[in-house]
Amino acid sequence: MTVIAIEEHWTTPDLRQALERLPGDRRDDSLVLNEHGDTLALLEDLDAARLAVMDEQGVDLQVLSVAPPATGPLDPADAVAASHDLNDAAAAAVARRPERFLAMATLPMAEPSAVVAELERAADLGFVGAMVYGRTGDVPLDDPRYDDLFAVAAARGLPVFIHPQIPPRAVREASYSGFDPMTDLALSTFGWGWHLEAAVAALRLIARGTFDRHPDLQIVLGHWGELLLFWVDRIQSLARTAGLDRPVVEYLRSNVVVTTSGMFNPALLRHALTVTSVDRLVFSTDYPFQRPTRADVERFLAEFDSDADREAFTSGNARRVFGLGDDVAR
């Protein structure tokens, strides 16, 4: 069975150093999470070490995406240059091992006027989507200045992955502080805050009417939909209040693709299938932050009802959503 993993991260020393040089009030404190153990070494490797882990897990192909916070915190001109360089580096890695790697584009969200041009350039290089975040500085992803991004992504069939990010500093101080520094950070990132940030970004896109204007647009949410699948009964009321064309659950079922991010819990699968369908679920490990073993993956795949559903989850849905040719990862 072919396995395509679609949320697999990487970075470069140049980007890491540029982010670390930012003044304290603009520095993303979650960068420290990239440095635990061998995580940073694995993030910066697009060769033997990564391939060895993939082989151990039984992953045939990774769709590469730059680790958070990508280029979002940089000055606009620096974000444009860094996004260009990162996409060139990813394209080179894919060219070296096209049977093992594809990539999602990094976009200079700090310079909205440059976003579409870089997305178009990346698409012409063979990138299969883009990874963004719910907010750049104080500007939310649903701000009208980014609407051209979604128009082009929809027209070119490029999914947009909304990745979690650390909450604004004021929110962290109000809701996630008061413990020791690492507990504060954990609460505001992987323990809770990250996921609320991504969920809010997706809900804002829905409430803004983004999918009414661009009905073919596909967004991807990690971590089983960043809590949204578990709160459908409450978020349904947004459709009437915001004057949307469809019930909120219909956007989740037709415009949102959900990936596992290495959370191979059968209970999450069962709940997801009560809200959406198996053709909206895709495989990912959230490498190298999560590293499920081959046995972990195989146990989880046994929870699907049929070989057809397993194949859809491990590769078929990714092929359709990301527009992959039949010859990819065969």
Task: Write structural notes for this entry.
The protein is an alpha/beta fold and 330 residues long. It has 17 helices and eleven strands. The chain has helices spanning 13-20, 39-43, 48-57, 76-96, 115-124, 147-156, 169-175, 181-188, 193-207, 210-213, 223-226, 232-235, 237-242, 248-254, 266-275, 294-301, 307-321, and strands at 4-10, 61-66, 101-103, 105-106, 130-133, 135-136, 139-140, 160-163, 219-221, 256-259, 281-282. The strands form three sheets. The protein has a six-stranded parallel β-sheet with strand order 4-5-8-9-10-11. Helix 5 runs parallel beside helix 6. It is globular and about 50 Å long. The model has no long low-confidence stretch (mean pLDDT 96).
Lay out the secondary structure:
Elements: E1 4-10, H1 13-20, H2 39-43, H3 48-57, E2 61-66, H4 76-96, E3 101-103, E4 105-106, H5 115-124, E5 130-133, E6 135-136, E7 139-140, H6 147-156, E8 160-163, H7 169-175, H8 181-188, H9 193-207, H10 210-213, E9 219-221, H11 223-226, H12 232-235, H13 237-242, H14 248-254, E10 256-259, H15 266-275, E11 281-282, H16 294-301, H17 307-321
Parallel strand pairs: 1-2, 2-3, 4-5, 5-8, 8-9, 9-10, 10-11
Antiparallel strand pairs: 6-7
Q: Secondary-structure element order, as H and E?
A: EHHHEHEEHEEEHEHHHHEHHHHEHEHH
User: DSSP helix count?
Assistant: 17
* Low-pLDDT regions: none
SS-based class: alpha/beta
**How much is the average pLDDT?**
96
Rg estimate, integer Å: 19 Å
Main β-sheet description: 6 strands, parallel
- The percentage of residues in β strands lies in 5-15%
| First-to-last CA distance | 9 Å
- Measured as a percent range, the helix fraction is 40-55%
| Overall form | globular
Question: What's the total number of strands?
Answer: 11
How are the strands of the biggest sheet laid out side by side? 4-5-8-9-10-11
